[in-house]
């Protein structure tokens, strides 16, 4: 495997205005959470995390290079991005251009099927699709590991959406190395037994969150007295999770995921000032998950930087779980996801 910083840019592979490149990527939900960075610019996490990629809510992103343009153009669901969101994409394109030795501006057109900024992993699918499409458009020949490192620079959780099924994102070594490839922070597939889990996604509120996960993570690391203990316990959770996945033991996977997520939210509640993503409908759904378990249905909850709840269960129980969750949060909507594919380039005929 060649490290990405040694790749010589191949200008003949750069796709100009006519062609460009397009890619699709799916969101992932962390079963062992990423919460806290040790380096904000390089997007290096403090702990390892592990996720399941979903088979719903993909993002599709087109990148066209325009030799005439003076600025990048970025649209999300057909609407031009502005401010910080636009700058985040441009900073990412600069990184790709630097590696490709190109100064060409790009037109980026991204379509989400997942509500943006609602804690449903839109930045994971978004930056994974952008990494695959932009690197192809600029003629970089990156393997999956290098794509994962690149996607990480856009949004940490995007490193995991390069891969399908279950993926671990390694925190890597302490900063100080000269190149990203030396830092060891990338995702890779995790060996998993044959089993058929579903994630029932209870969307109790699809609106954007009040506090960005970036800001919330920073505040938690800097001020929460519970952060250190959670990060330490997450290491043990990861070991237990890998073993549970190897056995295909859904109960163990669910128990570990639930305790890891509740612990992460506890760190936020103890931040100063507190960050609270969990709302009254969130707690109603959590109560319904406990009732399901009491009734003998294996179901376990995990929540991210938002009020929505993802319930892990056997695929064969998914309809029942979806029904119970739907009546617990009548104002929301419920989606059922299974194990999804990794990010990939779209062929000409698929765009
Ligand atoms: C995760 N989350 O592991 C965790 C759990 C939310 C809670 O990754 O700052 O959008 O772009 O690296 O990836 C959400 O954070 O953050 C996230 P940045 P990201 O899925």
TrEMBL record:
Residues 25-174 form the Diphosphomevalonate decarboxylase-like N-terminal domain. Keywords: ATP-binding, Lipid biosynthesis, Lipid metabolism, Lyase, Nucleotide-binding. One of its GO terms (biological process) is isopentenyl diphosphate biosynthetic process, mevalonate pathway. The keyword Nucleotide-binding applies. GO terms for cellular component: cytosol. The keyword Magnesium does not apply. This is diphosphomevalonate decarboxylase. It comes from Streptomyces anulatus. Belongs to the diphosphomevalonate decarboxylase family. It comes from the Bacteria. One of its GO terms (molecular function) is diphosphomevalonate decarboxylase activity.
């Amino acid at each position: 495997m060649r490290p990405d910083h040694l790749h010589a840019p191949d200008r003949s592979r750069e796709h100009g205005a006519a062609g460009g490149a397009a890619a699709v990527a799916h969101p992932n939900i962390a079963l062992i959470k990423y919460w806290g960075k040790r380096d904000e610019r390089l997007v290096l996490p403090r702990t390892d995390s592990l996720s399941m990629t979903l088979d719903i809510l993909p993002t599709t992103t087109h990148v066209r290079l325009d030799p005439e343009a003076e600025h990048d153009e970025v649209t999300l669901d057909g609407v031009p991005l502005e401010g910080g969101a636009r700058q985040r994409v441009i900073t990412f394109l600069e990184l790709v251009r630097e590696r490709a030795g190109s100064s060409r501006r790009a037109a980026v057109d991204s379509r989400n099927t997942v509500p943006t900024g609602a804690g449903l992993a839109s930045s994971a699918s978004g930056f994974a699709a952008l990494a695959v499409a932009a690197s192809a458009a600029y003629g970089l020949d990156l393997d999956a590991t290098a794509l994962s490192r690149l996607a990480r620079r856009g949004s940490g959780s995007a490193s995991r959406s390069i891969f399908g099924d279950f993926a671990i994102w390694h925190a890597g070594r302490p900063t100080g190395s000269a190149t990203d490839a030396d830092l060891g922070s990338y995702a890779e597939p995790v060996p998993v037994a044959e089993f058929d889990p579903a994630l029932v996604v209870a969307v109790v509120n699809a609106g954007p969150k009040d506090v960005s996960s970036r800001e919330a993570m920073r505040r938690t690391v800097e001020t929460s007295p519970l952060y250190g203990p959670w990060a330490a316990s997450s290491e043990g959770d990861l070991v237990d999770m890998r073993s549970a996945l190897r056995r295909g033991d859904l109960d163990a996977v669910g128990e570990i995921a639930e305790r890891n997520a509740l612990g992460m939210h506890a760190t936020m509640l103890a931040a100063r000032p507190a960050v609270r993503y969990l709302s009254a409908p969130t707690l109603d759904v959590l109560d319904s998950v406990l009732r399901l378990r009491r009734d003998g249905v294996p179901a376990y909850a995990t929540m991210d930087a938002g009020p929505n709840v993802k319930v892990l269960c056997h695929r064969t129980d998914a309809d029942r779980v979806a029904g119970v969750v739907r009546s617990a949060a009548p104002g929301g909507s419920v989606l059922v996801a299974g194990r999804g594919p990794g990010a990939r380039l779209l062929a000409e005929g698929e765009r």
